[in-house]
Amino acid sequence: MPRNLDLTALRSFVAVADTGGVTKAAGVLHLTQSAVSMQLKRLEDSMGVSLFDRSARSISLSPNGEQLLGYARRMLSLNDEIYSRLTAQEFEGEVTLGVPHDIVYPVVPQVLQRFAAEYPRVRVQLLTSFTRALKDQYAKGEIDVLLTTEDEVGEGGETLAIKPLVWVGTENGTAWRNRPLRLAFEKNCIFRQGVQRRLSEAGIPWEMVVETNSSRTIEATVSADLAVHALIEGTEPRHCERINHGGALPELRQTRINMYHRASDDSPVVGDLAALIHAAYQAH
Description:
Blueprint: H1 7-19, H2 22-29, H3 33-47, E1 52-53, E2 60-61, H4 63-87, E3 93-100, H5 107-118, E4 122-129, H6 131-139, E5 145-150, E6 158-170, E7 181-186, H7 192-201, E8 206-212, H8 215-223, E9 229-232, E10 240-242, E11 254-261, H9 269-283
């Protein structure tokens, strides 16, 4: 016959493990010491094992307790997630996320999927453009959470990652060997002038063969081996690859991926979206 663990007792067990004592755990849980002690005894009795080493002056986990702790954390986390998703339906409306074209992948789709699961009634309006345009919209209050690619981080911002720019071309392409070097860039790309300057400093002649506002046009031109491009490491389009130029092209500078968001005391939605983005970049 299946037996069920008492989640309330598990929560007391984890609190005691985290705080190092029944008294502190009782304060965290807003319970009496006797109530916490009873829950611990009930948990030990139900499992038929001792979870604590009480031989010393301070309480510590027994080997069985150490083994249970990881499981208990996972069970409580899943319990809280289920409860939050099925009962926290009061948040609804729309939140606007601004992201430059070139850093939508790979992180943003994962974040949107997770956010939709946690806030099924909140719609995320995703705006993609260039950093300069998005910052203007953010300044006007039209964007709630903003990602940018910048040399530095502005007031109220947080740097999520610092990554180098890399040269990209088509798979097994040869366009990078041509002189003058044929470049394809969006008109408003903030990396464009820096790339041109590095080429000039290295004495490499270049020409701009594609100037467009469409990242798709850039991808098509580069994948056809008609030009090369530079972008943030890890954001290479599917049909392009990092060029292994062996020093024939200059190394490019690093750039910051920054985040800005508007905190609100009335709703945790914007803050939670920002927290998901932060966690995704930490894990990536």
